Amino acid sequence: MTSPTPPAEPPHADRTYRSVAALVCGSLLLLLIAWMGGDAMIRGEGRVPWLAAAALLLVVPLVVAFTLRPAVFANDERIRVRNPFRTIQLPWTEVADVRASYSSELLAQDGTKYQLWAIPVSLRARKRAARTAARAAHDDPYGRTSVSADVRDSAGRTASADQTVRDLRDIAERAGDTTPEGADRGSVRWAYEVIAPAVGGGSCWLVGAGWRWAEADRDGNVERAGNPGPGNGPFQVSGRCAGQMPAAVARSRLIPASSSAPRARAAGSPAASATGTTTSR
């Protein structure tokens, strides 16, 4: 009589790491963008609603990619890093180190380095944690913490990014160097669900904006051609050059031809004869 096969141990749930500040800022930015874009689409005239829609299609995926999308998921078998434009999944056996200096990084066994966008490093938080640890180390026995306190209880004296990196290292140590059967291999996937809308929205906005600028330039040329000014007359200048005529040329064209008569009369006056000045006609 054979004994029944024991049920497989259920996999542990993923531990999720995100930046709370990024989530808050991303939500506020999306509300602001929706308000401004919706107003332009409802009240705009001509091509303005279409340009606003294209701008929303460009900006919204980028805001989501850099604020709401970044996350790190870790369990006893693998780590999954979701960055703005890529998703990296590696088993712990292919991870060499997780570290945080000026930014949080995941170093693979083959030397490839991946940034952890969901775990931002704050130098100010590190300085604050260092000051807290220094004060706690010099407290007297009647204070909050004494010199003989348990130094392993350092969660309150460590910056959040450094504490997260320490937790990931603990998970990697518990996973060990053996890969479970059926575990997924390492993979890197581009986030086309973010890249495609952003590229499409940017292309549509550039095309629409180019048409609008071309129409505005054409309307300006027609208006300048229909109005009298320095660019019209015997020596008419059309197009953009009409607005770029030198000031000296414009003044000379505005002076009437009869303005030379006073100079001629002044040259034939007795004062001019006394000085021996003659006028040639």
TrEMBL record:
Keywords: Membrane, Transmembrane, Transmembrane helix. Residues 69-138 form the Low molecular weight protein antigen 6 PH domain. It comes from the Bacteria. The keyword Membrane applies. The keyword Ubl conjugation does not apply. The chain crosses the membrane at residues 20-38, 50-68. It holds the Pfam family bPH_6. Residues 134-165, 256-281 are annotated as: Disordered. This is Integral membrane protein.
